[in-house]
Amino acid sequence: MDIDWSTLGFHYTETDYIVRASFHGHWINGELVGEWSAPYATRNKMIPVHAAATGLQYGQQVFEGLKVFRGVDGKVRVFRWKDNALRMQASAVGLKMAPVPVELFEQAMRLVIAKNKRFIPPYETGATLYLRPILFGSMHRIAVGPGHDFEFVIVASPIGPYYPGKFHCTSFIVNRRVDRSALFGTGAFKAGGNYGSSFRATEVAHLAGYDCLFLDSKFHRYIDECSAANFIGIKGNEYLTPRSTAILPSITNKSLMMLAKKEGLKVTRRKIRLEELADMQEAAACGTACVISPIDKVYDPDHEITYNFGAEPGPILTKLYHDLQDIQYGRVRDTHHWCTII
Ligand SMILES: Cc1ncc(COP(=O)(O)O)c(C=O)c1O
Question: 20 to 30 A from 74, CA-CA: which of 116, 185, 281, 289?
Answer without folding.
Answer: 289
